Fold this sequence. Notes:
The protein is of the alpha/beta class. The protein has helices at residues 56-60, 227-234, 283-287, 310-324, 345-355, 372-388, and strands spanning 5-11, 44-49, 63-65, 85-90, 93-97, 106-107, 119-120, 129-130, 153-154, 157-163, 169-173, 204-211, 217-221, 252-257, 263-268, 295-301, 333-338, 361-363.
Amino acid sequence: MFVDEIKIYARAGHGGKGCVAFHREAFVPKGGPSGGNGGRGGSVILRADHDLNNLIAQYYQPRLIAPDGEHGLGKGMDGHAGKDLMVKVPCGTLVWQLADGAKETVEDEQGSPDDKPMFRSSASKRPLIRSASGALAQEIDLSKEGADGKSASTDKGELIADLTRHGQQFILCQGGRGGLGNRNFATAARQTPRFAQPGEPGGEGDFLFELRIMAEVGLVGYPNAGKSTLLTAISKARPKIAPYPFTTLHPQIGIVEYADFHRLTVCDVPGLIEGAHQNVGLGHAFLRHIERCKILVLLLDMAGTDNRAPWDDYKQLLSELELYDPALLDKPRFVVGNKMDETAAEKNLKQFKKQIKKVSVLPISAAFDEGVEKFRKMIREAVAEASTE
């Protein structure tokens, strides 16, 4: 099962309560305050991992709850901190905070106004992203603009994180601070304080995890155009292949290896249909996976197997990409004509060149490995050129 979008609830651990206690020892009739501090609550931390390729782990565990900190004890003993909950997610995961998610809360503490600082839920704090080494990286602000340049506030909520590098960490919910024991409030004027702080509540909220696959080459085309066959020919990926549309139901990733040990990642996106930009046929679920690709390959059924003209397919694909996201047309793209072993393919290729001028077409037959090596070379050169820009 392939899961690329899942709604989850996360809650960090609450801080432990501070203790109200006094030192009791033989021959010490009036020992001072000795209440220990509460332990910090555990945080919910996301960590990008390149060994994962979908969000199926979160599908089976949609509630991420970190342990609470322990309460303080007498004799000045502080409570243990709650263990952080480390959650691995695939590289390319976007995190959206839903509109009805965590809200800012304020807890009332005991004691005089001077002794009770206001504790705010850490869900309202600005999220932090840590580098692969675990060190705190530069704090980023995604409140105005997302990682891909788009507005971060959409119907999905607010974009708060985009995890793209292996080892990158993001504190989803910050654990609450532990409350101070009564020993911290002893002064010359008040030597026996009989109050302590409660622990700070941990951050919580509803979030949406969305995966956008990290691939260098995206294969785009109509159903039954031969994308899975081409992916099988250029890599060791083995997606299901059958002579009917919508054989591929979720994106497939293939690794293209070269003789000099160079590698490329290619994403086979399930077939698009007219109206994909309006989410017809789960268009959005497929189109979002090519947003990160460096180059796009428009694969056309040059034989017109499903009684469609290749030039009409080309125009419709460009239209769907533009309507979904005009920035997709700014990416380098190449047109590949597949199924050139069919009888009508040569005739359709000539007609395509007349209908669509100034567009070069690479003719191939993925099923018989014709033109596949040239295709492998073409995408390597294109990716290298796109990487230098």
